């Protein structure tokens, strides 16, 4: 072997020693490769055989291996067999022991019977027993003898497993017989023993299993045993003693209690448990599984027990019923016999208990068709209605407590005698109680909030007190700007509860606050503008009237642009109402400047009406129902959105406010300078006024349109930018078309004069009061607006479109007796922008 | 036969002398003056065997009917040829070799000469083993094998370093049914068995009840494999027993044979009987542990009396080492009829059905080795010749035949088919191989027809594979 290894090593430089099983190898016949160099081939070497080393060198094996190797190298060698001991003899008695009765089944054999099951009695008598049997009188059959011997052996191994230690202690026949009888009886009576089950099966199915003992066989054996047991016992005892207590039939040596590995006759030891690597997890899992199984078994057991109990109870109930019936029968005959006449109530089976459930069932039945989709009209009857209500309340197939699951039939006697409520009823009651509680809560809330206004919608803007103080101290009626800011100012003045800024205000307004009525119904818009053109709000007394209160809201107006025939543009507005306030008188005043002599004929009225058809932008009838009823709700906006909106508004407005004040101061300084200049100019202008053209270039507006108020506003340099927004929008809102219609150049001149005067007044005022409040500016604007004027759109008006509701309000609050109008299509662009703002 | 003996004269006296030359250390003390009744167990004497003079070791000394008898083991013969000889066959004139003095109290231990030889060899062998382990790390990877050192499982153990406790521990955990021959009684304990209509001489020791060893012949039932020392008992038993076939499921049936699958756990008695019987003919089989972890595949021949057992192989329900056969035996009366090949073929058919490769558990017996080698060679040659493939990997061959790649390589090497040609390994179908194939075609051997196999690989739960009570 060492030589071979060396040889392999020497040729290693020529050839690969290792081979991969995944390497593809060419399969070639030797005849195809004559150039195969034999020298390079491996020297034939010893290959491991898998045979034990000692045996590998055995003579015959080596001979055989060498012969096969020789064969493989082409040598002609006879095949060598390893000699084995003789096995060629035939047993002549074979046929005597094996009968020819086997029939091959067509299908493959499948069986699980064991050797013991097919071998009959496990004791086989030997020659010694045969000798003994010959001497027996009366003769005993071999089968009986074996049976008895087997029973002796089995019994002794059960009762005296260690009899081999001392054979003299062997059980006596009497003891043995007793044990055997007990054993047989026990087996027969034990319903879990396989013998018992087998016997049962055999008797019930009429089959017999070969080589097994049934019940009868046990009895038969007992009879035989009584007959021959005593005869056989001495023989058995002798053999047992001879065997020193070992079983008479020799058996294999199994492992004893002390381990004896050296005894070659000990075989078939029990293998120790293969050490399975255990993890706790599997333990836990299996324990869990076992527990669950146990629980399930318990449940099943309980169920079965309960079913059994129920059935017993039912049986008892039936029995009782039967007894009652029998008793009644007896009473009936008795009554008849004795001639007792009376009420037979006690003889009639009372089914009272069954009545109620039946009614309920009827109700249920009635409810089903209704639920099935029939018109509610069919539910005219009270019962049906109730059923429907019940059905509606439950929302699901109403299962009343009287409903019995179909597969469980409860005897009528078991149904409790009480008023039963449907689930539907219960659910309905519950729902109602909840609704009621909610309503009550809401009512209480409304009560608590009655004196309070939710103004979060129009934003509370805290602003500096000094601005406001001037107004309040001046006693001048505030000019409402109809912005949210104005609102605030108004409320601050008249309802101190909304103002927290200063103590002084609080003290001052305390009295009025106490006297104040809450304005719960401040929803009327139309009331803002009085017929006389005065602002109601300016009247201090009107504050007590809730109707007059103006709480401007967002206009619920929406617009739509569309292109009509011929490319005409249309602006549709929604949310407008007919202007009911429109009066012929005012119309006349307004429109008949040029044609004063003509009478108001119907056509004109119609035209006017038509023209004014869409003039009102806001809905007077629109109810701010959410406002007064539930302050917590604003415009249907969620409270979250509101708080965000409100918060951002507060911030932006506060900043704006501050900036405005700052700017105002600067502007006022500038204005003072300008004023001086203006006064000088005015004097000059007065001198030349007669020859001045109407379109003043200073107005910075289209000359044909005669920019009046707008020009004034812009020329005035917008006294208060904060208030300029609404004002300018007001200008925007004023349709241009009216300028031509309603103004003559002369009027325009007059207007300009008046405007200038107004400006002067205003400037004087401003001079007088250094702290210019928005109110002030507003009042100036209002004063201007009080004059009949036609304003054109001011370019800077749009700058302030961002103020909420400003634009929409502007129209409504114009302090002009003549309502301002918008002409459809007149100022399309600006309106659409307004619409955007509103949206 | 003659040629083989001429080639291998080691068993003869002359040969032995050369053997001692090789290993000069143990001086064999030949005592020329020994009386016949002085011989005792362990002595080596010259015995006349089949007209030849052979050295035999005395394994037991008995007095029978007043005559002195020796039970002897012929050196370099398989144990199955051990026999009881009359004192007259011992040739005392050539002297007696006394057992090793250091082991006088161990009469049943290995032969003195053998063991000393082994000891001399051991160091070099071990050296080689460790060397190969160190220099061929590729041996660890699964698909690369060192052609110079193809290891076969189960044969690396040194018989002299055999540790009893280790061996038993291996048996305990490994589920193997083989055991070192050093640990079982070396004396055959039964004289003759009557099995069916055959009278057979047992080969080896088997732990039948010790009472039966006193009988001249024991009777073994052909169907239940139950054993009886008394003919009367056997007769009674045969009159009652109704079993006519192995007590399991028939999983294969063709015109000649049937195969039955029997679970050792379910048919304990039958399987124990089978093991006792097969132990008579298998040296390395152990009955140390019980039959539970094995399935027994039994081949039977049918006739009008029933299914007669021809051979069987056992198979671990779960083999950690990938063995597809634990023990395999064709009963002696059926040997040399091709049944062994059929058994092997069937074991590979099962492996194919399982989709695994498999190999028989080692060590193999001499007969086992020859049978397997013949089967492997025929299978591979047939595959290569029939398919006419131009190229194949070892793995391909393994997967088609369900043989392990080691066995494939082993076989190719044994038949000198693995050659090195133009810098590459090739499988060379040598002329002798082609010749062999021609012969095979003529022979028309029996084969397992896989279509007749009605079998699904049995699946066992962990609980079923535990071997405790």
Question: What is the beta-strand fraction of chain A?
Answer: under 5%
- Mean pLDDT score of chain A, rounded? 66
Radius of gyration of chain A: 61 Å
* Count of individual helical segments of chain A: 27
Helical content band of chain B: 25-40%
Strand order of the largest sheet of chain B: 1-6-2-3-4-5
Largest interface: A-B, 119 and 167 residues
Alpha-beta content class of chain A: mainly alpha
Low-confidence stretches of chain B: 1-25, 103-141, 154-162, 175-184
What is the 3D shape of chain B?
A: globular
Radius of gyration of chain B (Å): 24 Å
Give the rounded overall mean pLDDT of chain B: 79
Largest sheet of chain B: 6 strands, antiparallel
The count of helical stretches of chain B stands at 11
How many extended strands of chain B?
Answer: 21
Q: What structural class do you assign from the helix and strand content of chain B? A: alpha+beta
The CATH class name of the domain at 188-361 in chain B reads Alpha Beta
Question: Your description of this structure?
Answer:
- The complex is a heterodimer of chains A (839) and B (469).
- Chain A is mainly α and 839 residues long.
- Among the domains of chain A are: 117-255, no CATH class; 284-338.
- In chain A, 50% of the residues lie in helices and 3% in strands.
- Chain A has helices at residues 2-10, 53-56, 59-72, 94-97, 127-135, 142-159, 173-189, 194-205, 215-242, 280-338, 352-371, 382-394, 423-448, 465-474, 484-494, 503-515, 584-591, 602-611, 625-629, 639-688, 709-715, 721-733, 737-742, 745-768, 774-786, 806-812, 828-838, and strands at residues 18-20, 24-29, 89-90, 558-563, 569-574.
- A two-stranded antiparallel sheet of chain A has the order 4-5.
- In chain A, helix 20 packs across helix 24.
- The N terminus and C terminus of chain A are likely disordered.
- Among the domains of chain B are: 30-97, SH3 type barrels (Roll); 188-361, 3-Layer(aba) Sandwich (Aminopeptidase); 364-447, Arc Repressor Mutant, subunit A, CATH 1.10.10.
- Chain B has helices at 2-7, 13-22, 112-135, 164-174, 231-240, 268-279, 339-354, 366-387, 394-401, 405-414, 431-443; strands spanning 30-31, 44-49, 52-64, 67-74, 83-86, 90-97, 144-146, 192-195, 198-200, 217-220, 227-228, 249-253, 257-263, 294-303, 306-316, 323-325, 328-330, 359-360, 391-393, 418-421, 424-429.
- In chain B, strands 1-6-2-3-4-5 form a six-stranded antiparallel β-sheet, with no helix packed on it. Chain B has a five-stranded antiparallel β-sheet with strand order 12-13-14-15-17, sandwiched between helices. A four-stranded mixed β-sheet of chain B has the order 9-8-10-11.
- Chain B is globular.
- Mean pLDDT of chain B is 79; it is low at 1-25, 103-141, 154-162 and 175-184.
